[in-house]
Structure formats: C-alpha cells, structure tokens
Design a protein that fits this description.
59 residues; 1 helix; mainly alpha; 0% strand; elongated
Length: 59
Amino acid sequence: MSTLRAEVRYSDPNTRGFAGWAGIVAGGAMAVTLLIGALAWFTRNPATARTSSNGPDWS
C-alpha cells in the first residue's frame, strides 16, 4: 500500500512571481477594455438614434 501526499509551499518565489505577472496582465487587459469602451462611447453619434414622434422624415 502506498500513500500519496501533496505539499504546497506558498513561499516558493515562482508562485509569487506568477501571481504578480497575472495581476499585471489582468490590469493591462482591464485598462485596454476601458480604453476601447471609452473610445466607443465618445465617438458614438447619438443624433442618428433620435427619431421624430411623427415617424421618419422622408423629405
């Protein structure tokens, strides 16, 4: 009979380094997402979405 045993050492510097880089990459992805959203928001043309209550103006 064999016993399987798993040990985790959170003091491993590679684990901390990965967590740090994962945070940096996630923050960068969030920044890019916010930038694209802001560009889409400020470059929209809300005038084309407005319609008259009498229907479209065909003249």
